Amino acid sequence: MRITVTVNGQPYERDVEPRLLLTHFLRDELDLTGTHWGCDTSNCGVCTVQLDGVPVKSCTVLAVMADGHEVTTVEGLEKDGELDAVQKGFVECHGLQCGFCTPGMLLTARWLLDNKPDPDEGEIREAISGQLCRCTGYENIVRSIRWAAEAEAKS
Amino acid sequence: MSFGRMHRKEDARFIRGRGTYVDDVKLPGMLHGAILRSPYAHARIVSIDTSAAEAHPKVKAVVTGATLAGLNLAWMPTLSNDVQAVLATDKVRFQGQEVAFVVAEDRYAARDALELIEVEYEPLDAVIDARTALDAGAPVIRDDLEGKADNHIFDWQAGDRARTDELFERAEVTVAQDMLYPRVHPAPLETCGALADFDKVTGKLTVWCPTQAPHAHRTLYAMVAGLPEHKIRVISPDIGGGFGNKVGIYPGYVCAIVGSIVTGRPVKWMEDRSENLMSTSFARDYHMHGEIAADRDGRIKAIRVKVLADHGAFNGTAQPTKFPAGFFHVFTGSYDLEAAHCEVTGVYTNKAPGGVAYACSFRITEAVYLVERLMDVLAAELGVDPAELRMRNLLKPDQFPYTSPTGWEYDSGDYPKTLRLALDMAGYDELRAEQAAKRARGELMGIGISFFTEAVGAGPRKHMDILGLGMADGAELRVHPTGKAVLRVSCQSQGQGHETTFAQIVGNELGIPADDVEVVHGDTDQTPFGLGTYGSRSTPVSGAATAVVARKVRDRAKLVAAAMLEASPDDLEWQDGKWSVVGDPSTAKSLAEIALAAHSNLELPEGVEGHLDAVTVYNPPNLTYPFGAYICVVDVDPGTGQVKVRRFVAVDDCGVRINPMIVEGQVHGGLADGVGMALMQVMAFDEDGNHLGASFMDYLLPTSMECPSWELGETVSPSPFHPIGAKGVGESATVGSPAAVVNAVVDALAPYGIRHADMPLTPANVWRTIDGRPFRTDLAIS
């Protein structure tokens, strides 16, 4: 099937198998390997991207379902050489170790702050509860997102 | 000057999605492999028909055990001197075992082709419960081993049996408890995989593989496949978590290599999550019977343990050769007692091979869990507070270095101080008062303590080897003329931040910023030999190697500085990161100045070669012994059995902290592991050997909702066995925390007269335990 998907602001037109997963479309067709794959069952969330601004697990979205839609991946967070506040927060607060869950966490964090600029700890925990991290015990991810919220409030 | 909190160098790529994990590597002409796996736990293979798969238009090769047998590769050695089938030839011995390998143009086609392979099986009775593995008449799993007529692997013991038995006979009080540390899986979010590229012209094999031990892999590939070792390059790129899962060599890796040799093109194999959980390693599966002998005022005299160890269908545990039960015999823990003895029997079952994985420090997880559970059982028996019982029995500071009853030489520590700090942080007395008030109202609240001692950083090599490869690790340090440095180490990070902390070590030794030090790791063509990262050995071994090699550079720099200053080296002192004439700071020469001189035409004394580069191999004089005191507070819903971890206080002593931010991150992750193992993670099996935890739908991992906000504290007892006094911390929290959670839940259930419940303490398990109908958590619930 021929599809056109706008990824990080740029339209891409490709012929794809109807069964191709969005995560594989991004990784294998567009070489955007910042989006990962981890479980096949929508549990781990390392494949999380934003579809029209909403976090989705791209291992359970078909590429054809993104036809005509806008996808944001981790590669799209940095704008004009300026890191997004959530990216800075993860560095500041040691919100990542192996880095495998990080892109998905960043995209959910960005969505949360776009919709709730001043989330408390409980709201942050709930927002990322569909995504697993095996390294950080979540503590510093929560702090990172809180750091980003405060940084954006100041700016 | 470089120790302390510092942002990680690694983060710049990871926050941009620019890490390079193995599945991100693409090579021209690359093909994809997929593995056909056994649906049965135990079955004879009658026939395999691959013709339809071979006819698939996108399939380039189909490899079976018969193909491999022709290459003498159907079986490979395991890390415990057993053999494991790469692709099954005679029988399948666990559900998910590798049967055939398809190479195709893309990963979807490879999966399609698996469906086209016809395998006829003759199902056999399976051995699922380790406790029946040695029964007369049990099906013999390993009939491939000549003369093998049972499922016995080994008997091993440590300690003084006679003295221990004598103390038990004379003891005023004894308690005993059966407990299971169930089979779990480390489940890093990146699964295992490999990309193999065999160049027929040069004979060079390059394997990209997220391995924690790249050099060991290269040597074993040379030994297994008969390939010359200098023609093998193992590249371990960024690793999406390891935790022990990425130590071993798995059949899929060998298949990818064979696939590349057969097709002449690069072949990538990535396992999916179910394959990961079903086949590539597992951890624990220890059925333990522990006993403590004590006097009536709670002084422990002796501990006695019997273990039945389920090793699965092939004995593939990754541990030093001399120790088939790993370091389990450190089970006397943090306590002062007179004698101890353990016996461990290893058995085959129809389950995946493995056993040592998952941040366990070679089975110290099991040992700590055992002794910390027993302490609480004893406390309940004596009616003594568990904190008080521990305080009475902890080793005292003046006993260090301390030789344990089973032969370990603990390095340093003030255990009572660490426990006191944890109790103070938790507000222990107030918690007990709150608990009493809640109990009066019928509410279930529990407080659990765990005090652990770890033993990490294997070797020394005279005691520790894996398949004959001694556990010592190299480091090379090159200093460029402008004073910037490149460190090359044998270990490999899976998120621990070596690129940052090891640069800090060099910076600290040489008086240069950590940012001026590039750390190279994970590529056998670019780094010195060493056994890699597991058992928390990176900082204790490679970190020590780094300090030692940096000191060699500093010593050489002294000679060059002396030549620069036309002074005797004996008159120089190392002050504020520079060499200067004693008492004359105006003569100070920085490393950058010295490095430039060392590369210049400056005349150097005889015997000084010039340049500053150095190499070393670090053979640890002893293990290091991190320790800590953990306190967990839980609330249990008596109606549903749901456990809520309300608080978790963790005081860790890992010696000198190179980067406290990273240390704390390591502890956080391990604490989450402990909550997961204690409350939710288990791989159970039904009676036919069906794996009941083969996806993240069934194998539950802790999320942000199950984890509390961790409360950390620290004490610092430098290790005298390490050049900078560091002890390692990667696995401490995983080792120490499960017992604290279980002790808390059991404490909450004390009003029901309950003294023990096996992990995981799921709502169903807790509810049934309250109801007096506990079940075997390793088998299907009945």
Automatic annotation (TrEMBL), chain A:
Please name the SUPFAM superfamilies in this protein's record. Answer: 2Fe-2S ferredoxin-like, CO dehydrogenase ISP C-domain like
Sections of the chain in a coiled coil: none
Give yes or no: UniProt keyword Acetylation. Answer: no
Quote the PROSITE patterns the UniProt record gives. Answer: 2FE2S_FER_2 (PS51085)
Protein's recorded name: (2Fe-2S)-binding protein
Q: Which PANTHER family match?
A: OXIDOREDUCTASE WITH IRON-SULFUR SUBUNIT
Q: Does the keyword Amino-acid biosynthesis apply?
A: no
UniProtKB/TrEMBL annotation, chain B:
Tell me where in this chain the Aldehyde oxidase/xanthine dehydrogenase a/b hammerhead domain is found. Answer: 16-125
Q: Which domain of life is it from?
A: Bacteria
E.C. numbers = 1.2.5.3
Q: Does the keyword Oxidoreductase apply?
A: yes
Keyword hit for Oxidoreductase: yes
A GO term for molecular function:
carbon-monoxide oxygenase activity
| UniProt keyword list | Molybdenum, Oxidoreductase
> Tell me, what's a Pfam family for it?
MoCoBD_1
This chain belongs to the protein called: Aerobic carbon-monoxide dehydrogenase large subunit
Q: Which organism is it from?
A: Nonomuraea harbinensis
Organism placement in taxonomy = Bacteria, Bacillati, Actinomycetota, Actinomycetes, Streptosporangiales
